[in-house]
């Protein structure tokens, strides 16, 4: 079993932080996104969407999508629970994880791709769409900050997959210097708490 990934990418880091929380080690096979290794026939046979990470099992099964990979390991090793172990907790975690993916990670990634032109050799980009996406991400982050005023973590008192999605996205966007409200007060407290977890060093 191994994970095909590209160091420095946020989706790969989501899986790596999750595995560190669980205390699970999985070997990595790194590929070069800049060189387009993820777009070649060999990789697309494993993941036709050409994105990383992909978990390749010993029986040849390939599992892509970061959350699907995390769920696989969560079922193999349920403790500590990062997806919630009762109906109410699991639903609240799912709600926040989807909010983090759909309202922060996705538009922020669009801002990154369209403002920096990092993949302009392989996709059409629009600076205007980048700006719209950046503004949408900033607006969503404000809603997260307000929620964090009264909650230690997104789903309440305990750390979950939703915090991995949200916190890893913020770290990535800050490193890229996207114009987002990183200094909001509750967000700053929350991010300091995330950074103090040993798992947060995972890349
Ligand atoms: N929904 C996927 C997204 C995967 C994704 O977009 N990965 C990025 C790196 S973080 C990628 O492979 N980019 C390469 C490209 O777009 O060519 C997941 O959750 O894993």
Description of the structure:
The protein is of the alpha+beta class and 203 residues long. The chain has 2 domains: 2-76, Glutaredoxin; 87-201, Glutathione S-transferase Yfyf (Class Pi), Chain A, domain 2, CATH 1.20.1050.10. It has helices at 10-22, 41-44, 66-76, 87-116, 127-148, 161-175, 185-195, and strands at 2-5, 28-30, 54-56, 62-64. 33% of the residues are buried. The mean pLDDT is 97. The structure holds glutathione (GSH). Glutathione (GSH) binds at residues 9-11, 33, 38, 50-52, 65-66, 119.
Low-confidence stretches: none
User: What is the number of strand segments?
Assistant: 4
Largest sheet: 4 strands, mixed
Order of H and E elements: EHEHEEHHHHH
Question: Which descriptor suits the 3D outline?
Answer: globular
CATH architecture term of the largest domain = Up-down Bundle
Short overview:
By secondary structure, the chain is of the alpha+beta class.
Task: Give a topology summary.
Layout: E1 2-5, H1 10-22, E2 28-30, H2 41-44, E3 54-56, E4 62-64, H3 66-76, H4 87-116, H5 127-148, H6 161-175, H7 185-195
Parallel strand pairs: 1-2
Antiparallel strand pairs: 1-3, 3-4
Helix pairs in contact: 1-3, 1-6, 4-5, 4-6, 5-7
This protein binds glutathione.
Glutathione binds next to helix 1.
What brief labels describe this structure?
Glutaredoxin, 203 residues, Glutathione S-transferase Yfyf (Class Pi), Chain A, domain 2, 4-stranded mixed sheet, 52% helix, binds glutathione, single chain
């Amino acid at each position: 079993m191994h994970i095909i990934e590209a160091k420095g990418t946020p989706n790969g880091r989501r899986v790596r932080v999750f595995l560190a929380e669980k205390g699970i080690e999985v070997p990595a096979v790194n590929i070069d996104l800049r060189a387009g290794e993820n777009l070649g026939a060999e990789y697309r046979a494993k993941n036709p969407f050409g994105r990383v990470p992909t978990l390749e099992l010993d029986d040849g099964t390939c599992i892509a999508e970061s959350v699907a990979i995390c769920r696989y390991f969560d079922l193999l090793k349920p403790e500590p629970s990062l997806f919630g172990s009762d109906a109410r907790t699991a639903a609240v975690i799912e709600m926040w994880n989807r909010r983090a993916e759909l309202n922060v990670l996705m538009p922020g990634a669009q801002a990154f791709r369209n403002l920096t032109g990092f993949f302009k050799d392989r996709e059409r980009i629009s600076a205007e769409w980048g700006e719209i996406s950046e503004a949408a991400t900033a607006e969503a982050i404000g809603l997260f900050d307000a929620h964090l005023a009264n909650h230690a973590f997104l789903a309440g008192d305990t750390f979950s997959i939703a915090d991995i999605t949200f916190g890893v996205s913020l770290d990535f966007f800050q490193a890229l210097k996207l114009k987002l409200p990183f200094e909001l007060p509750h967000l700053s407290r929350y991010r300091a708490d995330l950074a103090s977890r040993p798992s947060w060093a995972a890349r």
